[in-house]
Design a protein that fits this description.
Layout lengths: L5 E14 L3 E8 L3 E7 L18 E7 L5 E10 L2 H4 L2 H17 L7 H14 L5 H15 L21 E4 L4 E3 L1 H4 L6 E3 L1 H12 L2 H4 L6 H19 L4 H14 L11 H4 L9
Helix pairs in contact: 2-3, 2-4, 2-9, 3-4, 4-8, 6-8
């Protein structure tokens, strides 16, 4: 059966790339079509009516026309603009981190409605939750599960014995926790505390509303971040670019005076990929 030339889908803009003088290639993540690229013609012109509906971190209803190469966007309407994220550098750094991970861990045109809902819910919660570090850890662990890389946190991944309440080690190459006896055979395994394992298990096994109610100190938060970041880096075989930007912003904020704001216009804050990255 011949597909209709025109079609519509709702999706989140997770990547944009300059094309020519006025166009962009957009990567759109949808629940029913998965991830795909499309061309937005003239969207970089100052008078473009579509520009505001096709920015990064925007959930839009999009009309497309099928072409031999990339499909062309012919219409769009914002469903949710996530304006609090775009008006705050700190929140936006989280949002870009999330969309970069989605882009890296998903294949073209492979739909996953659960992962789409996870992504949408996480972006919605970023501006509402006071536990944003835990929100990111929740997203990372459940993204890993959806991608088939759920870390083993209940038993030693080498000897398969139940973990004891002592300081064990996390091995990214092994995909989980190593007991003290097995950790010595893995030179790149990093120590992980009992509390860190408990929190990671809780995040892995509980809904988001329960996870964001947890109270953890900054040291434990950084320990959790080191574990998940290290695992993601190993799987991707590179650093997550937006994670480095998040770290730089954190360092800047630590040096700011109390009460000083980080708001900055979105156009200056959102990086745009180079054409050669497509």
């Amino acid at each position: 059966m011949t597909q209709p030339r025109e079609y519509q889908t709702a999706g989140i803009i997770i990547r944009k790339t300059r094309l020519g003088e006025a166009d962009r290639i957009l990567t759109i993540y949808t629940p029913e079509l998965g991830k795909f690229d499309a061309v937005a013609k003239g969207v970089r012109r100052p008078k473009s009516k579509m520009a505001g509906h096709l920015e990064l971190l925007t959930y839009s209803q999009i009309t497309l026309s099928r072409r031999r190469g990339l499909d062309i966007i012919t219409g769009c309407q914002t469903i949710e603009g996530f304006l609090p994220l775009k008006n705050d550098l700190w929140l936006m750094s989280y949002g870009l981190y999330i969309t970069e991970l989605v882009n890296q861990f998903t294949a073209i045109e492979v739909p996953d409605e659960d992962l789409f809902r996870l992504t949408l819910t996480t972006l919605q919660q970023l501006s509402q939750s006071d536990s944003r570090d835990l929100l990111l850890r929740y997203f990372e662990l459940h993204l890993l599960q959806a991608s088939g890389y759920r870390p083993q946190l209940r038993e030693c991944v080498a000897c398969h014995k139940p973990l004891q309440p002592v300081n064990n080690s996390f091995s990214a190459s092994s995909g989980g926790i190593l007991c003290p006896a097995c950790a010595g055979k893995q030179p790149f395994a990093h120590p992980i505390t009992v509390n860190a394992i408990k929190v990671l298990r809780f995040i892995q096994d509980n809904p988001l509303d329960a996870v964001v109610r947890l109270k953890i100190d900054k040291m434990l938060a950084r320990d959790l971040e080191a574990v998940t970041r290290g695992y993601l880096k190993y799987l991707l075989e590179r650093e997550v670019k937006s994670a480095a930007w998040l770290d730089d912003l954190r360092e800047q904020m630590q040096g700011m005076k109390p009460g000083q704001k980080t708001e900055q216009p979105a156009a200056k804050a959102i990086p745009e990929q180079n054409p050669e990255e497509v």
